[in-house]
């Protein structure tokens, strides 16, 4: 059994990880580290687990765990790993932004659809961001064929869980309910990792990426619409996308109109293509806490340990 630990066990992404790993046939939850909840029952925070587990939050880590998931606030993973050492055999999967941009570190960017082989050989993974996953999967088939030449326009909306558990003016129910707003227009923190992936597949990529993120009045899910200039037919575009994702475990090109109930509570990303004159419109949908975070982290763990990529992740959408 794989002995797994979670750092920062009280947040939304940690809660999803706990739910998945408790049911994973090859994983034993070894410790759940939380400075704010140490000694308290896990089911007291993640109350959907009442009656399912007697685990409590820990004040110490096991440095010899087989895999450790970092579910810390952005900027805290680097500090944590400087202060806490793990064995050479311990794989680390970071769900923050800290290691997503390639540079002077050993973390592989964990988007399985483009980096599967690297992930399989890696000991450290930087798990992609939720918006970055939805937008990259929508556009990477074009980049892989050198077809992003014109400006890219992306409008995407995410649920309230995308902001984490900490309260702010824009996360209170009274603000979110019956409300909608844009934020961080053209300067969202996920832009750098999206462009990095584009450049990986299309080294001459230099087109403008115009991204407008929005806050929705629902709990979870991302719905993104992306469009750019495209001269070929919709038939050719569909073949290009289906060929690119033919071996993908969770990314599917479909013809149906997309909405969140098709993907929430699953690890799927669904894509729909439409052609309007000389523009290609790609709609993408996923669950920001699963394919956009914890589900993808487990997908990466499965690849790192040589398991079936979808093990423990055959989750069904809650359609009604």
Secondary structure blueprint with pairings:
Layout lengths: L1 E6 L4 H11 L4 E7 L8 H4 L21 E4 L5 H8 L7 E4 L13 E2 L2 H10 L2 E3 L3 H15 L7 E7 L14 H4 L4 E2 L8 H11 L7 E7 L6 E8 L4 H11 L6 E4 L14 E8 L2 E8 L7 H11 L16
Parallel strand pairs: 1-2, 1-3, 3-4, 4-6, 5-6, 7-9, 11-12
Antiparallel strand pairs: 7-10, 8-9, 10-13, 12-13
Helix pairs in contact: 1-9, 4-9, 5-7
Key structural traits:
320 residues, alpha/beta, Rossmann fold, Dihydrodipicolinate Reductase, domain 2, 2 domains, seven-stranded mixed beta sheet, six-stranded parallel beta sheet, globular, NADP+ binding, EC 1.2.1.38, N-acetyl-gamma-glutamyl-phosphate reductase activity, oxidoreductase
According to CATH, what is the class of the largest domain? Alpha Beta
Structural class designation: alpha/beta
What is the number of beta strands?
Answer: 13
Strand order within the widest sheet? 8-9-7-10-13-12-11
Domain Semialdehyde dehydrogenase NAD-binding: 3-122
GO biological process, one term: L-arginine biosynthetic process
Function: Catalyzes the NADPH-dependent reduction of N-acetyl-5-glutamyl phosphate to yield N-acetyl-L-glutamate 5-semialdehyde.
Protein name: N-acetyl-gamma-glutamyl-phosphate reductase
